[in-house]
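Justification of resources, computational component.

The compute hours requested in this renewal are based largely on the per-chain cost of generating structure records like the one below. Each record pairs the submitted sequence with a full C-alpha cell output. That output is archived, and it is also reused by downstream analysis tasks.
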Amino acid sequence: MSEERVGFFTDTSVCIGCKACEVACKEWNAVPEDGLSLTAMSYDNTQALGASTWRHVAFIEQPRPDGRTQLPVVEGGSTAQETPVGGDGELRWLMSSDVCKHCTHAACLDVCPTGSLFRTEFGTVVVQEDICNGCGYCVPACPYGVIEQRPHDGRAFKCTMCYDRLGAGQEPACAKACPTESIQFGPLDELRERAALRVDQLHEAGVPEARLYGHNPDDGVGGDGAFFLLLDEPEVYGLPPDPVVTTRDLPAMWKHAGVAALSLLGGVAACFVATAGRGRR
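The structure output for this chain reads:
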C-alpha cells in the first residue's frame, strides 16, 4: 500500500544562505566533495545541481526593490520574527536552496531503459545506482537539468529525498538541518495550502513579487514534488519559466511511427502482389 505523497516547500524569503542543507545532504548520503572554489561572481561555490551536488544554495545579488530592508517570516512558536534580506547599501541577496523537483510526470523515469529510476511509495523519484548502466538518457530528458553522470563513473545521481530516512519515519536531512525552516517537508497537499497562505501573508506585507513555482498540478510536468516561493522571476534563480516534460509527445510519436510502418508494409505488400500478378501472366 502506497504512502501519502510527500515533498518539499522551499520558502526562499527566509533562506539565509547558510548551506546547512548542502552539508547535511552530503553527510547523510555520502555525496562526494564537489569543489570549494568560488565562482568570482558570487559567494556560491557549488554553482549548480549535479551528480555530486544534490542540494545547491544560490546566491543572487540584485538591487533592493522599493528600498525594503526586511521581510516577514513564517511564524514559529508563539512569535513571528523579522529577518533581514539585504546587505549594505541598495543591494539584497536572493537565496534559494534548489533540489530535484521529483516531478509528477518525470521524463527521466520515462526514458530509463534498466528500471534504475523508479517512483517510490512516497511519490518521489529515486535512482538505484547499482542498476544504472550509465546510458545517460535521463540527463537530457530532465527539463530542469538536475540529473547528471559522475565523471570516471558514468552512473547518474540525484536527490533521493532521503528515501532511507522516509522509510524510517524521519524527515530528509536537509529539512532537518535548515535553521530558518526555509525548507519545509511534509504531505504535498498540506504544503501547497501552507505555501498559498505564506504568499498571501507576503502580499499583505507589501511584497507583491512573491509567487509560487512548481506547485500547480496542471503545469507542464504535472506539478513538482519540490516547489518554491520565489521573490522574482524563475529565470533569476536559474529555473525554466515554463517547464514541460520532455517525453510529453512520445505517445503521439509512437502512433505516427506505427502508422508509417503500416503504410510501408502495405506498400511492400502491394508491390509483391503486383509483381506476382505479372509473373503469372
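Confidence is low (pLDDT under 50) at residues 76-87. The CA atoms of residues 54 and 159 lie 5 Å apart.
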